[in-house]
């Protein structure tokens, strides 16, 4: 495992696109909670009494809510990381380095496993950073900081990990299928927009939510529902449904199988 991982990291280490997109995503991770806090201070300073606690204006940092709130927001920026995956894998096919690695002695299975290990490591690292950000802001601004409150609803962190891994496997599928870096990234982004429209039509116009959940790109976001409607006193799902988890795990298994099949059977 470590040998295959080291090979993958050697490939991305000199890649400027990798560090640029990763830095941009890291900036977004930090900017969202900081910007939200600054917005709360502005609201208090300009529209509300100055002695009003920020928690009463923006209760986003309460440990009962923070895990779902920020993982829900962050998942909309995963496309930056998915683009890294699409670029890195598509380049290996377009530049024929994938074929050269097999000629040099790497089996197709090892080539596939190296990619999977890299995606798991990237997803785990990002999830750890998101966990740290939520924990820090929660400890500073949550009105309750006991261990029971901290662990409340923390299951959205592993759900965010599954979301990331699902998205990365989807990007890997597109990259292997298309094998052209620029086209793969365009398809990855454009298909996401198209499916978002289709998802809304199926869910709200046709009222077939079960079918909307089955769409490949939308299935990656079904674990973490929109939590902000509860602040408008609307009914909100604040747990992870077992059916949604089954769909997500099913897609992950399917994408693993399809991606391996394409690498094993198609010409490199």
Topology as a string of helices (H) and strands (E): HHHHHHHHHHHH
Number of beta strands: 0
Helix coverage percent: over 70%
Number of domains: 1
| Number of helices, counting only DSSP H or I runs of 4 residues or more | 12
> What structural class do helix, strand and pairing data support?
mainly alpha
Characterize the largest beta sheet: strand count, sense, and whether it forms a barrel. none
Sequence stretches where pLDDT stays below 50 over 5 or more residues: none
Assign an overall shape. Answer: globular
- CA gyration radius, whole angstroms: 20 Å
First-residue to last-residue Cα separation? 22 Å
Average predicted local confidence, pLDDT: 86
Strand proportion, as a percent range, falls in under 5%
Model description:
This protein is mainly alpha-helical and 268 residues long. It has one domain (2-8, 17-265). The protein is built from twelve helices and no strands. Helix 5 packs across helix 10. The longest helix has 34 residues, at 108-141. The model has no long low-confidence stretch (mean pLDDT 86).
